[in-house]
Specification:
7-stranded antiparallel sheet; 5-stranded mixed sheet; disordered N terminus; 29% helix; Beta-lactamase; alpha+beta; 21 strands
């Protein structure tokens, strides 16, 4: 691609030309005969993109920048080509959730007690129950809600014996079939279901004292067997794997030093992880339990006579911050499944149709495979992303999505990027990375903190490190942020 292939609107050329002196070394404004005209900002960006593609052999960059006030495209390159979005897919899933559920929506988890004394928990795809980061924010234990439920259950049962425990389950397909199965143990590939707990992960924290290795596991449950053979050694080489149904956790290997930071490994069966943890809290709260624990389709349970005794709610806005600021994959997958039909193939088709209709997108400009962007089968064009962001910016509860985005140099996945210069605090966006892919899409804010431009910068087919793509994205964002004040 050459500089000439990047298109800039005529109006924007006039607006941005004077600002280009901030970005490149050019001749004085008074042009003499034979001197070249000062480079426009668009031309500066075009040269950056061209140089990047020439330097990073085989890499492909797509770019779209739109002025929100006019809806006009400001700068574009390969804007209609399809790219793998990586975690930029979360912008689409968030828009899907916001459109279908509404900005005031709250995920609801309900606990019932039947006449027989059985405890039944109905889930609503809340991705945040027992979330360790939110627990820290709230100054509470990850078990806080379960312990609150235990008090209520104990009060309602009185002298009646605690019966069985049933939780919302499913077919067991808790991950899409487009994910790599050899990575199912990785925390970022944690499963998603109607009931989720602790990011659907086990966490191990290691400590060394008295010349011994000590392991602290979360979540804890007497209904999960821990087989731990971790010992002190000369190397930090260990593994942690859950067994079938998450009824067993096996740890092997050696540690050299302790660490205050939990190490996460994905669980396999979210409803059963939830149920085994809840059963433990019920027992710890004084409700002896020796009954059956089962995950199942709760439409088979007769609710007649059952009392809804506990309800836990989580605002969509807070869950969306976890999805986007921190790029929590299971949150985005829960958005997709909750707003679809509960399956990945069906929900993906519903999301495509919904976004296409709601935001007047071209049907062939996006392909949905999952909610988080882990799948390499997701496809979207940069122009489609900016059109979506432009549409979102004008809806009633736009702030639910915009406030969920990471802020350059301030927080989330952009905390350590663009830490100085005009982009700091003025770029809000969603990062995206999988092998060979690096993307950044979002908004450029004006001085009042309101979105002024929507942008999408996507790099695919990266042969090695993605750090050059991040540097390109950051430099373009700095240019755009500097120009907002010139409008």
């Amino acid at each position: 691609m050459t500089a000439g292939t990047l298109r800039i609107s005529r109006r924007v050329r006039g607006v941005l030309a004077g600002a280009a002196m901030l970005l490149v070394v050019i001749a004085p404004t008074a042009r003499l005969v034979g001197q070249e005209a000062p480079a426009t900002v668009g031309e500066v960006i075009a040269r950056k993109v061209s140089l990047f593609e020439q330097t990073i052999g085989g890499a492909r960059v797509g770019l779209s920048v739109v002025d929100l006030a006019s809806g006009k495209a400001l700068v574009s390159a390969r804007e209609n080509e399809l790219f793998i979005p990586a975690s930029n897919q979360k912008l689409l899933s968030s828009a899907f959730a916001l459109h279908v559920l509404g900005g005031d929506y709250k995920f609801t988890t309900e606990l019932y007690i039947t006449r027989a004394g059985d405890v039944v928990v109905y889930g609503d795809f809340d991705p945040t129950l027992g979330d360790p980061e939110l627990a820290i924010e709230d100054g509470k234990s990850i078990y806080a809600e379960m312990d609150r439920w235990t008090v209520v259950v104990k009060k309602h049962l009185g002298d009646k014996k605690l019966g069985r425990l049933f939780v919302s389950g499913g077919s067991g397909a808790y991950r899409p079939d487009t994910w790599k199965t050899n990575q199912n143990h990785m925390h970022y590939q944690a499963p998603a279901a109607k009931l989720n707990f602790h990011r659907n992960c086990f966490a191990a924290t290691f400590k060394v004292s008295d010349s011994r290795a000590h392991t602290i596991i979360a979540p804890q449950s007497r209904f999960i067997t821990i087989r731990n053979s971790i010992r002190l050694g000369s190397r930090q080489v260990w593994s942690m794997r859950p067994g079938s149904g998450d009824s067993e956790l096996v740890l092997r290997g050696t540690i050299k030093t302790g660490s205050p930071y939990p190490q996460y490994v994905a669980a396999n069966d979210p409803p059963m992880l939830f149920a085994r943890t809840l059963a433990d809290r019920l027992v710890a709260g004084g409700l002896p339990f020796a009954g059956k624990i089962k995950s199942m389709d709760l439409t088979r349970i007769d609710r007649k006579g059952a009392k809804p005794v506990c309800t836990t709610v989580m605002p969509l806005a807070r869950a969306m911050k976890r999805a986007n600021k921190d790029s929590l994959n299971i949150a985005a997958e829960c958005f997709l499944l909750r707003c679809g039909d509960g399956t990945w193939p069906g929900s993906a088709k519903i999301m495509e149709k919904t976004l296409t209709k709601a935001f007047s997108l071209s049907p062939d400009s996006l392909v949905v495979s999952d909610g988080s962007g882990l799948s390499r089968k997701n496809r979207v064009s940069p122009a489609t992303v900016t059109k979506l962001l432009t549409g979102i910016a004008s809806v009633k509860h736009a702030s639910v999505l915009t406030d969920s985005l990471a802020r350059a140099g301030i927080d989330g996945t952009l905390k350590k990027r663009m830490t100085f210069g005009p982009a700091r605090g003025r770029i809000i966006g969603k990062t995206g990375y999988i092998l060979g892919v690096s993307c950044l899409s979002g908004y450029v804010l004006d001085k009042a903190g309101k979105p002024s431009m929507a942008f999408s910068i996507m790099a695919n087919d990266m042969p090695g490190r993605v750090s050059p793509a991040k540097e390109l994205q950051d430099s373009i964002c700095a240019i755009l942020a500097a120009q907002v004040d010139k409008k």
